[in-house]
Design a protein that fits this description.
Dna Ligase, domain 1; binds thymidine-5'-triphosphate; 3 domains; Alpha-Beta Plaits; DNA polymerase, domain 1; 4-stranded antiparallel beta sheet; binds magnesium ion; alpha+beta; 12 strands; 5-stranded mixed beta sheet; 44% helix
Length: 392
C-alpha cells in the first residue's frame, strides 16, 4: 500500500468583502455586500455579518436589499482582489510546487513532499494561515486530509477562520454525519431523490451496499457517490497553469445525426471548457472542434477568434460556427469534442479596465456566479452527456 497523501484545501473567507473591510476600517463588523449594483446586479459575496441576514453569493441584488436593507453595498474592485490573490498564491507556492488554483481565493495543495522542510500537514496549514494573515490581513480556512474531496469538505466546515484536520483512516467517520449535498456532484435533484428514499446523511449512503447504490443511481453515479461517501477520491492535485490546452469530448451511446442535438451537447462541452479555463485564469486563442464518425474517421477544425476567450457564450458561438463548417444535417456522429488551445494568462482585470464597459463587468460577474453555482451543485459533473438532457 502506498503512503497516504497530504492534501490541503485553502479558501479565503468572504474574500471580496473581507478585502473591503480590511481597506476601510469603518466597514469592519458590519454587513458588507459586494456585487453588481445595477438593476440586474448579482451578489458576488457577502461578509459573514451580512450572511446572518440570509444574503448569499449569486443571489439577486434586489433580493439582498430586501433581506439586508441596512448593509453597505459595494461594487467589486477586481484589480485589488487579483493583487491579493497573487500574494496568497505566492505563499502557497512557497510550500509546494503542487498548487492547483480553483479560483482567485481557493486552491488545493499537495504537501506530501514538503514534510521534511515544513512539517506535517497540520503544521503547514497553520503556517499558511499565519502567513496569509500577516501578509494580507485576511482570514483563510484550511482543510487537511488524504484526498481532495475530504480536504475541501474540511475547509468549509468551520468557516470562517477554520482549520480542520482529518487524519488518514478517519475519512468515512468524518463524513458520516454530514448532509449528502456535501458530496461533490450531488445536485438538488439528486438530493431530493435520495431524501425521498429516506437517505439524508452521508452515513445513510455508507450503510448501503455498493451494488444497492448502483441499482438506485445507475452504475456511474452509484459508483461515484458510493466512493465519495466512504471518503475515497484519487484525483490528483495538478498545476493547471502548465496546461497547453483544455478540452472535453463525449462519445455517444448511439450515433447522433441531429444537428440541434449536437449543438446542445456542444454547449455543455463549451461550458465545461469555459469553467476550466476560468479556474486556471487562462483564455484560449484557438478553439478546436473534433468529430468522429461511426467508421472512426476523425475530423477537426480550428478557429482563432479576434481575441482570446474564456466565456461560455463565446465558446459556444465558436463551437457552433465550427460545427456548421464540419457537419451536414443527417451525418451520423459518434464522438464530439471541443477544446481551447494556445492558452494565455487571463489578466481579466486589466482587460476589464481597458474595455471599461459596465456591461462587460456585469457579464464577468454573472459568469463567475454561474461557475460557483456549478462548482457547488455541479449537476453536470455527473449528468451523462450522452443522455443529452437539457439542463433546465
Ligand atoms: P467563495 O470562496 O465561494 O466565497 P467567499 O470567499 O466570498 O466566502 P467563503 O469562502 O468564506 O464562503 O468565492 C470567492 C470570491 O469569488 C467571492 O468573495 C466573490 C467571488 N464570487 C462571485 O463573484 N460569485 C459567486 O457566486 C461566488 C460564490 C463567489
Ligand atoms: Mg472563499
Amino acid at each position: 500500500m502506498t503512503a497516504p497523501r497530504t492534501i490541503l484545501h485553502a479558501d479565503l473567507d468572504a474574500f471580496y468583502a473581507a478585502v473591503e473591510q480590511r481597506d476601510d476600517p469603518a466597514l469592519r463588523g458590519k454587513p458588507v455586500i459586494v456585487g453588481g449594483l445595477g438593476p440586474r446586479g448579482v451578489v458576488a459575496t457577502a461578509s459573514y455579518e451580512a450572511r446572518a441576514f440570509g444574503v448569499r453569493s449569486a443571489m439577486s441584488m434586489a433580493r439582498a436589499r430586501k433581506l439586508a436593507p441596512g448593509a453597505v453595498y459595494l461594487r467589486p474592485r477586481m484589480r485589488d482582489y487579483v493583487a491579493v490573490s497573487r500574494q496568497v498564491f505566492a505563499i502557497f507556492d512557497g510550500f509546494t510546487p503542487l498548487v492547483e488554483g480553483l479560483s482567485l481565493d481557493e486552491a488545493f495543495l499537495d504537501v506530501g513532499g514538503s514534510r521534511r522542510l515544513f512539517g506535517d500537514g497540520e503544521t503547514i496549514a497553520r503556517s499558511i494561515r499565519q502567513a496569509v494573515r500577516e501578509t494580507t490581513g485576511l482570514g483563510i480556512s484550511v482543510g487537511v486530509a488524504s484526498n481532495k474531496f475530504v480536504a475541501k469538505v474540511a475547509s468549509d466546515l468551520r468557516k470562517p477562520d477554520g482549520l480542520v484536520v482529518v487524519p488518514p483512516g478517519e475519512e468515512a467517520r468524518f463524513l458520516a454525519p454530514l448532509a449528502i449535498s456535501r458530496l461533490w456532484g450531488a445536485g438538488p435533484r439528486l438530493v431530493e431523490r435520495l431524501r425521498g428514499l429516506g437517505l439524508d446523511r452521508i452515513r445513510d449512503l455508507q450503510a448501503l451496499a455498493p451494488e444497492d447504490l448502483r441499482r438506485i443511481l445507475g452504475d456511474r453515479a452509484g459508483g461515484h457517490f458510493g466512493a465519495l461517501a466512504r471518503g475515497l477520491d484519487d484525483r490528483e492535485v495538478s498545476n493547471q497553469r502548465e496546461t497547453h490546452s483544455i478540452s472535453r469530448e463525449t462519445t455517444f451511446a448511439r450515433d447522433v445525426c441531429d444537428q440541434a442535438r449536437l449543438e446542445r451537447v456542444l454547449a455543455e462541452l463549451a461550458r465545461d471548457v469555459g469553467r476550466r479555463l476560468r479556474h486556471a485564469c487562462l483564455r484560449a486563442r484557438c478553439i478546436r472542434l473534433k468529430l468522429r464518425l461511426p467508421d472512426f474517421h476523425t475530423f477537426s477544425r480550428q478557429h482563432h477568434p479576434a481575441r482570446a476567450i474564456d466565456r461560455d457564450a463565446d465558446l459556444i458561438a465558436e463551437g457552433r460556427a465550427l460545427l456548421h463548417r464540419l457537419h451536414d444535417e443527417g451525418m451520423p456522429v459518434r464522438l464530439i469534442g471541443l477544446g481551447g488551445a494556445d492558452l494565455v494568462e487571463a489578466e481579466a482585470q486589466e482587460q476589464l479596465e481597458l474595455f471599461g464597459a459596465e456591461a462587460e463587468a456585469r457579464a464577468e460577474g454573472l459568469q463567475d456566479a454561474l461557475d460557483r453555482i456549478r462548482a457547488r451543485f455541479g449537476a453536470e459533473a455527473i449528468r451523462p452527456l450522452d443522455d443529452d438532457a437539457p439542463s433546465s
